[in-house]
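Hi Y.,

Following your request, here is the sequence exactly as I used it, all 459 residues.
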Amino acid sequence: MSNFSDESRSTLDRVASEAMEKAHAPGVSLVLLKDGEIVYRQGYGSRDLEKSLPATPETLYGIGSCTKSFICLAVMQLVQEGKIKVTDPVRDHLPLRIGFRDSPITVHHLMSHSSGIPSLGTANILIKRMSLGEGWIPLTSESDFYGFMNAAGDEVDARPGEKYFYLNAGFTLLGLLVEKVSGLGLEEYLRKRVFEPLGMDRTTLLRERFDSDGNRMTAYWKEPDGKQRATVHPFHPLIYAPGGILSSVVELTKYLTIYLQDGEYGGEAILGENLLKEMYKPHTRRPDNVFGRNAYGYGWGVREFLGHELVVHTGSTGVSAAFQGFIPELGVGVAYLSNTGYWGSAIPHAALALLMDRDPLEEVPYLAQWEHWKRLTGTYSSYRDIFKVEVEQKGGMLVGTAKSRWGDQTAPLIPVSDDPCCNEFWIYGNETGRMKVWFEYDDKESRLYYERWVLRKPL
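Below is the corresponding structure, written out as tokens. Let me know if you'd prefer a different format.
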């Protein structure tokens, strides 16, 4: 492994350790690609806490919604063979009755989350049932699925192509479509057409293959108090296509390679270059995020990241999390997996920045904010400790708690600007309305200015 400096490794290891501690995450696996080579591979923490088994780059995890690009790749293979068109109305192939008769939902609309149907919660229903034993909405058979979906006509919010709504049920339909058009079960199709050609021999949708693997995650459900409870990964045919693949970061890098090599792997064409590029072409606009422009292609998000186009998808099964992405212009990619539900992308974002020779602690906005907030958090005291304020980071916010003889009062600190290193904040009170508080600091201390008080914290 080369092209990744010791300094970069040290920075990434630090980000990983601190992010996992914040999230109470049991285990993480990570692989980085640059110029067709793996330049870093690492496991952090435990794939099984009770047995104290380490996470490794070969550990199998659920990849959640990162499955969606695999399904779109399968659809585009069938398009290439002339068996289907992206402009085909879905109702021409499947018993879908929801939507407008004069403006049908097409295969394109499902792959780009532009059907006009908001989330119906199908994945939520099945994850809760399979992993937690909760919930009784009938959703077991294909008949249940079509009945549930077709009864949701009043939920349709827009005509196809008008709005972006992330719809797991739409990918259940795409999986059923692949099965019908190809004549193969989804696992069989993906194994023959994708997994085996890429050498992804351990990647699977099936419980029996996962359970028989000696290097697999134990799934953990994070309780509201932050404790992790061991449970089981959800397996169900109706969530195979939206988020059912299990894989390792090492095998996912083989998949990423076809996007960095124009649809080929090991000299074999997996999909034609033009159709492959349609998958990460922006088809549906999404709200911009902290990095800038944001859109969705076919099973891939397409967004701005530090001045470059990042093709990316995240995933969560509630008990595992994933991130896979690549920057075509730079030939770099990252695959990241964890054995608890989605808890942010700090580690893969930091990895991508380092692959670009950028400092993530300065240039990834929320990581820069985390670093800045370390200076601001802590206990601030007035003269002779008469009045104290505890400043803590909770989730993605700073929270201040004023402590006095008359009781504690807690309020979120709302930054007055989008600058991640902002030192000025608003707090809100029932009587006073909006009030500004701010921080100043030097090499010796940090000072909090609040109403009549100047409170100090040694550095």
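The domain at 370-458 is CATH 2.40.128.210 (Lipocalin).

Thanks again,
Q.
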